[in-house]
Amino acid sequence: MYTKTINFSHYSSIKIGQSTEVLILEKGDTIPRDRYLIGGANNLLISPTPPPLMMLGKDFATIELEGELLTIGAAMPTGRIVSFARKNNLSGFEFFAKLPGMLGGMLAMNAGVKSYEIFNILDSIEIDGEWRAKEAIEYGYRFAHLGGVATTARFRVIQGFNQELLNELVALRKNQPLDPSAGSAFKNPMGDAAGRLIEAVGLKGEQRGDMAWSQIHANFLVNLGNGSYEDALYLIELAKERVYNKFGIMLQEEIKIL
Ligand SMILES: Cc1cc2nc3c(=O)[nH]c(=O)nc-3n(C[C@H](O)[C@H](O)[C@H](O)COP(=O)(O)OP(=O)(O)OC[C@H]3O[C@@H](n4cnc5c(N)ncnc54)[C@H](O)[C@@H]3O)c2cc1C
After folding, report:
1. pLDDT tens digits for range 68-103
2. Which atom from ligand 1 is nearest to the alpha carbon of 36?
């Protein structure tokens, strides 16, 4: 293992944060217990005082197809997984397109689009060195209780990359803002949409400093230039308070605040 200085105002998708030392894990390292693991930082909001951080190094960016079993390292970026699936004519991974992150972050978030979620196609995950079947892991809408560091996952693949499905899913992204964000800020409450609720309390487009609830999609907290952690947090708290006061619904963050 070794440390690397990462500037989160460049590295994170929402472009907030400062330069922080991150421990990079290599194959065979003992995994520290006192550090927070990050992936591609596409679902994170980093405070000025984050906990000690670690991430998986390039050793874990592997992908290997043996018969019908696809084994992928947790540091593999989603874009490369889609390319591999296309090249090898494999079905099931189309929704990874335009879903930024690494496999480990996808697993921990049970990331997905519409009814396509990573746990639907998953077979098993290696967590802290032990293989666990999907059925032994508690998971649901945008969460999976992995209880440790996922280093590798296995998928049983079927043939037939579906370019049409990929195009459809990519087209859905047209209503998403292009400004830096961490995707949806809140989970959708059961039977409702967080974006609808934020809009209904008059916060669509609401700006504080350089942070705003997007004009395009109200559940996207966007950075219009030099957005700060404090302004992001202010808008998150404001949305929670207004939605609770008007609808009695407590919005739950999808983004992880560190
Ligand atoms: C423009 C945009 C659009 C998005 N659209 C969607 C969408 O449609 N659907 C969706 O689900 N998400 C969406 N997201 C969010 C993001 O793409 C996913 O949450 C993705 O899975 C994050 O991966 P990451 O590697 O960046 O994880 P990070 O943001 O770095 O971490 C996320 C969580 O995963 C944990 N984690 C990371 N790696 C591991 C590991 N190896 N083992 C255990 N835990 C780990 C971290 O501790 C953290 O809790 C979007 C984000 C952006 C910026």
Report:
1. 999 999 999 999 999 999 999 999 999 999 899 999
2. 47
